[in-house]
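Model it.
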Amino acid sequence: MRELLKLFSDTESRDELGIGQVRDAFSDLLFPGTSVLQARARYLLIVPWCYQEAQRRGLHGDRLTAQVDRTERKVIAALLRGDDTEGVIGRRAGVGVQTLPSSIYAAALLEYGIRTGDDEGASNRRLAGLADADELTERASGIWHPTLPARPTKFPDEVEGGLRLTPDEGRWLRERILTAAPGTLLAYLLEPEHRPGWDSDAPWEEPAVLAAPDPISSLVRDAALFSLAIRGAALLYNLLVAERYEETGLTEREAPVARYRDKLSGWNQRVSEEQGLKGWDRSGMWDRLIERNPRIATNAAARRFIDRWLDAVTSGTASDAATDQSLRNLVAERERAVKKGQSRLINDKLLRTWSGASGSRPLVYRWPQVRRILVDIHEGCAADLSEAANARA
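Modeled.
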């Protein structure tokens, strides 16, 4: 539960203005198969190994599911006994964690072709007429890619290397993602010469990303401009909440109105310096987003709100957002339409629980999680070279 609460308290993940479909479509286009709950790359192998361990026993159906659950919790315990627990799912909650790696990484395993067959339950239903249990187990085991690296010998009681990839595992994962997601920023950043660093807050801050070819570069440009532009709406929303917070006499948050007026002023300065916003043609952006998620096309209210706000930003009229009544009304009406009775602009009980920052950080499209996974794979692939250099020394 604490893992889920962390997600909901993240100031980027909160979607107060109903733009989540667009944010997620950008994220999926840039980094397919990823999510904000993913932690480390080796889980893309650990989850299949947990299933294989259960399938090795000839289990299927509900018994297989129960055994996978137990195996995953054994893995958590083993990882927590290691020296490096960074990114271990369940690091705070321990083996009782509710959301297990098999749930968090399910979409990625399918996206990258690591899981190649149907779910176990569907396989069992189709094979229910088979009398030979060995044949059933063999068919069920075929849901994983045939070249999946072998699990460590003492798995799951011990996980040799923890969450660090071996060279063979790193190269295998790189090849799977390059094959499954060609032409994406994710694949581009997996090339040896494009390894990201540790100090970038957004993908467009990476030198390698700035040199990416089209269509990657144009997608990144649209994502960066959208992040910058829509943040003004989030800051204005928080200003509206801050004003109401102070008007009702609440004092737990210190001077929130002044703070958000300063933030909006800084945002205005950044917008005025961004030349890319002038003449920004958004038609191609919308085409790509709708192709990724056709439901965006049917969400007329969200599209209308976003376009009206982006029009204000690109025309320069959003420079006075803090005092422009039409923009204040635009944001307030959108939040009330999205949140209804849960709107902090009308619900005093929820207003008192305001953390002081709700959806106010720039959109970075899962970059912290993606960067960690990319670095894991690069470090795994480079381990051979490091070992060879140490041996020569």
